[in-house]
Every structure is written in C-alpha cells, then in structure tokens.
Design brief:
The protein is of the alpha/beta class and 418 residues long. It is built from 15 helices and twelve strands. The protein is globular, with a radius of gyration of 21 Å. The model has no long low-confidence stretch (mean pLDDT 95). The structure holds nicotinamide-adenine-dinucleotide. Keywords: NAD, Nucleotide-binding, Oxidoreductase.
Length: 418
C-alpha cells in the first residue's frame, strides 16, 4: 500500500513541479518503532502481540494519528495510514504531521482485564516515542473511550502529569472536549452543505444512502435528515434497510438500541431489507460510505448510481474504482477532506488541554464550520482550476502546505545557489 501511495506522490510532485527535495523527504516515514507486547493472560499464560507506532512526517508539527487494535494490522498498513494522516492534517491546516499506531490483536477475544493490560502495555512501550509535542495518539478501530482512558491514565502515571495531552479522544471527565462525538460526521455534513449549490443539490429533493450506522453514519444521517435530506437507506454489518419514502435516523437508532441492529426498523413507507451490496448500488443522489475500507472496487464500481459520494470511512473506494467512477462523472468528496472534522476537533482538545481553558459546544462547532468550509472551498477551487478530481485536488492542497514547510528550511536550490 505504501509503495502505491509513494508512486502517486511522486507523480503529483512531478506534475506540480514540487521541489525533488520534498519527495525525497516524504517518500519514507521519519521513524517507526516496532515492539512485541508481552501480556499476562487471565489464565496465567503469557501472550505476545506485535505493535507499531509510526511518525511519518513532522514538518508541520507533532505527528497525530489513531491507534487501532485489529488482527490484520501490519507494518505496511500503519505506515500507509500515517502517510494519509500527514495529508489529512495538512488539508485541515492543523499544526500537525501524520502518525499512526496499532496492535495486531482480535480484542474481542480478550477479557476486559486482558484488554486493560494490553492498552497499558502499549503506552509503556511507546511512552518515550509519543508526547504532546512529539506524537499525539487518538482512538481508531476497536480503541474506544475506555481503552483511551486506560492509555491516558498510564501515560499520566509514567510522566507524572495528571492531564495527558499526548492522547486525544479522552472522555470529557478526563480532559476530553465537547463536540468530539459527532465531529467527524458534522465535518462531512458541513463539507456537503458547503458544496450544495456547486453540486446542484436540493436538500428538499435529494436522497441519501448511508453504509454503516455507527458513530459516523448515524450522526451524518441525523444532521442531513434534520436539514430535509431524505435518508432512503442505512446499513450495519448484518444488512441494510431501504425505504424510498425515507427513514427517521432517530427512530432507527432507537430500534438499534433495543434490538441490537437496524434490521426490522420501519421508515415512513414500505421499508424492506436489502443487502449491503444493494445499498451501495441504489439510485440516490448521495452515497455515504461510513463503515469499512475497500467497499467500492472494480467489481461493483460500474453499478454505482449515486452522483455524489461522500467518503466518511477511510479508503472506502479502491484507487482503480476511484479512477473508473471519476471517469464516469461521479463526484467523490475524498476521505482526507470529508472525514477530517474528527481530527480538527481533536486538535481543539489538545489546544484546550494546553491552555487549561475549556470551550463550549457552540465555539467548537463554529471553529469546525469555519475550518471545513474554508478547506472544502479551497479543494473545490483547485478541482475546477486544475481540472482534476476532488481527491487529486485535496492531495494537491495538502502537498503544497507540506512542501512549503519543507522548503522553508531550504532546498537544494538554496544550498547550491541555483
Ligand atoms: N469515528 C471517527 O471519528 C472517525 C474519524 C475518521 C474516520 N472514521 C472512519 O469512519 C468509519 C466508521 O467509523 P465509526 O467511528 O462510525 O465506526 P463504528 O464502529 O461506530 O461504526 C461502524 C458501522 O459500520 C457497520 N459495519 C461494519 N461492517 C459493515 C459492513 N460490512 N457493511 C455495512 N456496515 C458495516 C457497523 O455495524 C457499524 O454500524 C471507519 O472507516 C472509520 O475509520 C471515523
């Protein structure tokens, strides 16, 4: 994955005539630490887990990125995700570089006490690698609030400082920020609403299908529904529901809380069950993938009908499918822009921890709105001016900022006097 990302970067640097020094720096991660965590299991045995943390590039500030617990985590995945975080933070104009971490584990197989030991062991192993001015961690797949609280608690114990600014996504009672829960969804919602006129979208008529009804999918559905968009389909890991007359996200969530899933929830008309594959292929105005990576590939891209795809998940469209969809005229609002609201509000948590002054929800939301609208506009303008896709435009936007910070320290041109 990293080789592919690197090749795309090389082409972008050449096309934009970015100084070769910039590519030389960005083609490899700055540092990656690999460790083996040895955990005492509840039955008294010892088990080893591979773990990584990568600081890809820190020219724009300390590296920032989540830590995931997943059985498929690998070094290549961590370094590629850290590469993407470098660009996402630059697109959102945050004073951060990109980082990522992970543990190769199926956390569902661990007891709560084993999970706590693993979370604390991760911090112990990486305590001198991370830091509020060095590398700032955050939640990711299967590292929820309690895992982050254990990690923050362990870091506080190691450093002797009660408020661990090296970790964001903390519970509010532990120095977290208001407005983080729906920040990712709200960011994508702001981006879409900002583009409404340009995309010729009328909320009173537009239909939306959302894959995934977790944190991001649910809040996206709620925000768009409140503004008049008709949510015609939502899904979870067990399947999807479709109602051409529309679904009420609050009612679907109520059903999910009582029944453990969305299947069986009723909308305004004749609601029926469909598969997740069918949801992706629905004839609607906006498709919002908000579940997993690699959901749209060359195997199904020619059946995608939605004119606009708002990528709330990370990497839901493969590069090959992305090229096919773009050529076919679909507008894809790319992940590094669409879901950057989460890291934008995480930055505010870090700011509040450092200043000791805590913001209210409206201030957090105002800041998010300004950031998302400004950066969405900048990406949209590049998309039009350079006649490139929104994804390419987002990468160009981020790359220019990163390149500026590399070039500010002097390039070959400066040192050789040419
Ligand atoms: N939460 C954030 O702040 C944040 C930030 C940036 C990116 N993201 C990305 O957004 C996506 C969703 O994150 P989340 O926080 O909402 O996760 P979540 O775990 O809260 O929700 C995921 C949802 O996807 C559903 N799902 C799982 N497998 C599915 C499948 N095969 N088909 C359809 N649905 C399926 C789950 O049932 C669940 O409803 C992820 O790709 C994540 O990386 C999240």
């Amino acid at each position: 994955m990293l080789d592919k990302a690197r090749e795309n970067l090389r082409l972008a640097c050449e096309q934009l005539k970015i100084h070769p020094d910039v590519f030389e720096e960005l083609k490899s991660p700055r540092e990656t630490l690999a460790v083996t965590l040895l955990i005492r299991m509840d039955n008294g045995s010892r088990r080893a887990f591979k773990a990584w943390r990568c600081r890809y590039n820190d020219r724009r500030g300390p590296t920032k990125g989540g830590v995931r617990f997943h059985p498929n985590v690998s070094l290549d995945e961590i370094e590629t995700l850290a590469f993407w975080m470098t660009f996402k933070c630059a697109v959102a104009n945050l004073p951060f570089g990109g980082g990522k971490g992970g543990v190769c584990v199926n956390s569902k197989e661990l007891s709560p006490t084993e999970l706590e030991r693993l979370s604390r062991a991760y911090i112990e192993a990486f305590s001198s690698f991370i830091g509020p001015d060095r590398d700032i961690m955050a939640p990711d797949m299967y590292t929820n609030g309690i895992v982050i609280a254990w990690m923050a608690d362990e870091y506080a114990a190691i450093t002797g400082e009660p408020l661990p600014m090296a970790i964001t996504g903390k519970p509010i009672a532990f120095g977290g920020t208001v407005g983080r829960t729906d920040a990712t969804a709200r960011g994508g919602y702001i981006a879409l609403r900002h583009l409404e006129a340009s995309l010729n979208l009328d909320p009173a008529k537009a239909t939306v299908a959302i894959q995934g009804f977790g944190n991001v999918g649910y809040h996206c559905a709620k925000l768009l529904h409140a503004d008049g968009y008709r949510i015609v389909a939502v899904s979870d890991s067990r399947g999807a529901i479709y109602d051409p007359d529309g679904l009420d996200p609050l009612a679907v969530m109520e059903h999910k809380l009582h029944n453990g899933g969305i299947l069986g929830a009723k909308g305004h008309g004749e609601t029926r069950e469909i598969s997740n594959a069918e949801l992706l292929e629905l004839d609607c105005d906006v498709l919002v993938p908000a579940a997993l990576e690699r959901q749209i590939t060359l195997a199904n891209s020619d059946r995608i009908k939605a004119r606009i795809i708002l990528e709330m998940a990370n990497g839901p469209i493969t590069p090959e499918a992305d090229a096919a969809l773009t050529a076919a005229g679909h507008i894809i609002v790319p992940d590094i822009l669409a879901n950057s609201g989460g890291v934008t509000v995480s930055h505010l948590e870090w700011v509040q921890n450092r200043s000791g002054f805590y913001w209210d929800n409206s201030r957090v939301r105002d800041h998010l709105k300004t950031t998302m609208s400004t950066e969405t506009q900048a990406v949209w303008a590049l998309h039009n001016d350079m006649d490139i896709s929104m994804r390419e435009a987002a990468y160009v936007h981020g790359l220019r900022r990163i390149a500026d910070s590399v070039e500010a320290r002097g390039t070959q041109a400066y040192f050789s006097g040419t």
